[in-house]
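INFO worker-7 received task bundle
INFO bundle size: 2
INFO processing item 0
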Amino acid sequence: MSQLRNPDGFTIDSLIVALYESMSFLPGDEPDWERFANLFSETAIIIPSSSNKDENPDSLTVDDFVASASASLAESGQLRKGFFEEEISRRIECFGNIGSVWSTFEDRIGPGEDSLGRGINCIQVIKYRDRWWIASMIWDKEDEDQDKMIPSRYMTA
């Protein structure tokens, strides 16, 4: 792993800010995949939710997720448009060296642009080697057609 950016991972807050910053990018650019990968523990898993309720979601390594997301962004033309995932609200629960973060987000093409949708990242974190790491991350997005909207308790800090 490359050098940790100061202060990524020194606190849970800085870890989550770095997560959103690393995934967001301007038109013609791409996510900062190196920074993104350095936020995760070596054995971390990422589980993208599926819109198919009967389908078992895949558990991906960070490298597998980066490869899949990179290909998807290139194929969809999203790299030409840019992408910003902005945090709306965050709830953190901790005990000792473990924590769980419920981070509500909104996707946009760019700052100030119309919303592409909202969702929640559920992120498990662990502290070792004098910093916080993401151990796992799973998310789901709102879907009005399925009457799946974010509860109000996840819309305030």
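INFO item 0 finished
INFO processing item 1
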Amino acid sequence: LIHCVHLTDDGINKLSELVHLRRLELKGVIKATDAGVIPIFQNCRELQIFNAEGLSLITNSSINALARFSGESKTILNLKLCFFITDEALLDIGNHCQNLTALVLSDCTNITMKGI
């Protein structure tokens, strides 16, 4: 679903029905918000790879849900250009995503050295 710029939270929510989903690429889905992605994390517990590059409207709430509901299965997480993600989200990732092998935080302007 890379660069599906017209995709809204309503459409994204439908993906939460795919409970065995393992990889989700939402790069550039600029209308995606917490309301769209949180149900995916709540229902798709096998999700291993999540590309959220450019999802500039998601916040720590999404990352908290990702970490708490499906964190153990995560291996790759791309949060590049997710401007509202802060150090608080990194704490959730560190506490719940033990199998993570790649984490991209480029241009996440609210993440500090303290969080890293």
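INFO item 1 finished
INFO post-check item 1: The longest strand covers residues 23-25.
INFO post-check item 1: Residues 67 and 94 are 9 Å apart (CA to CA).
INFO worker-7 idle
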